[in-house]
Amino acid sequence: MTWIFLLLIVVAVVWAITAYNGLIQLKGDTLNAWKQIDVQLKRRHDLIPNLVNAVKGAMDFERETLEAVIQARNQAVKIQTDTLPTAGVKKLAAAEAQLSGALSRLNVVVERYPQLKATANIGQLQEELTSTENRVTFARQLYNDTATTYNVRQAQFPWNLIAGWARAEPVELWEISEERERAVPQVDLSKKPAV
Amino acid sequence: MSDANLFVQQRSNRRRSVLLVVGFLLFFAWIGFGGDFALGLMTADAAPGAYHHTFPWIGIAAVLVGSGLTWHGWRNGPKDVLWATGAWEVLQPSKPQEQVLVNVVEEMAIASGLPRPSIWIVPEQDPNAFATGTDERHAHIAVTEGLLTTLSREELQGVVAHEMAHIRNYDVRLMTLLAALVGVMALISDGMVRTGRHSRLRVRSSGSGKKGGLGGILLAVWLISVVLAPIVSRVLALAVSRKREFLADATAAQFTRNPAALATALRRIEDAAHATQTIHRGSAHLCIADPLGRRSSARDGRIADLLGTHPPMATRIARLKAMAYQFDQTGTLPGAV
After folding, report:
1. Are B23 and B72 in a shared domain?
2. In the predicted structure, residue B145 carries a pLDDT above the cut 70
3. In a 10 Å sphere around its CB, with 0-12 CB exposed, 13-18 middle and 19+ buried, how is residue A165 labelled?
4. Is the minimum CB–CB distance between A186 and chain B shorter than 8 Å?
5. Which of A141, B221, B262, B290 is the most buried if burial means most Cβ atoms within 10 Å?
């Protein structure tokens, strides 16, 4: 009788260790994905001054669009990100959504000036911009997927029994709350004409 | 996405890699010790002073050579595959197209959460792409120049995502090993058949007559297996590779959330009529589309199923379109991974 009892304890302990490590692993993955977003956002923030300088001369009369981009960028830079995204994601997401909106409006405007588009420099910058936006999107996608797995796992039975021990807390997802960003038309400038 | 399924897939690919290596070594042992056995039979009746083959040095040598080849395939397989296609590595993008490629690969590395693979361009006008490497930290993605000029940015993204999926699923290691080992096996078998032709007469006259029975049967099985080995190994390679394509398509859709772009990319690759010149038979199963110009892949049928390195393109495109439809309707992809 005693050895069955002992066996049960051993099984429980082994399971608890495995589950604990699993949760820690997921937490690490989530943190990593979160950092990846940070890296990509910083990249985007650094790119904007260059972009604005490049088009400023040729687009003197579109000052409003440029102002909006700079404004949104400065707003977004101000928001400090936490190391663990348990709160504050919404605020950052909103600021970055503003910036995304302003940038895609700028992109649409640039399209309207053929002489601006003709310079190779702008072509490169547009590719850079497209790529930067994609990077932010994909980093966000990876973060949301990882964070969802993490959130679901720590709430599920029986993992929830050791969630406290593993210091697992639900993290916030990066959701697009702005209706406006959802409504922004997707402009892919690099698209080749159909052959 | 389901991490458990991904884990199962990775583990099964690792297991297959090990099985492949073990099978390859067993084949070498069989060839070597079988040869010893045959030589032993031949020299058993020789005059007392003449040479008697008693120590199985051929078998030992064959196993050693087999191990060496496996080790070489493991270490240098990716390099050999890239070298065979004449690809060059994009270190510093100089043309806008190269910049786009580098950007797209980096974006997909972010989406998949993998380290950035090295990027190669094959000087070739036919659109095609492949991935090779030993693991996710030592991975390479190669695309042809034709792919860069034929596809739009979104389509290129789909193709690169497909290759990243092969890397993440650990397909690349298995496929590269297959490319290296299957090639070697064909070579060895050819050589054995050639030398066999010279010695067969002597075997019959001196060996099987007296020892007969079990020895003769073993000898026959040995000869047949030497002849059939390359065919069997090729069919195996094909069977292993075809299943992976559907999975990689589905994973690519998870990465880009844009299955429709991959579908049109596949259509365009398929429509490019000519064969890829620089990618040869040995590495055909690594590519996103069959590079040998055997457009039988368009037809659905038994023969195409058995001999194609890739599933019928029409089926792949149809599956991707179904995914795209579901994604448009519900905003989620089928639990494909």
Report:
1. yes
2. yes
3. exposed
4. no
5. B262
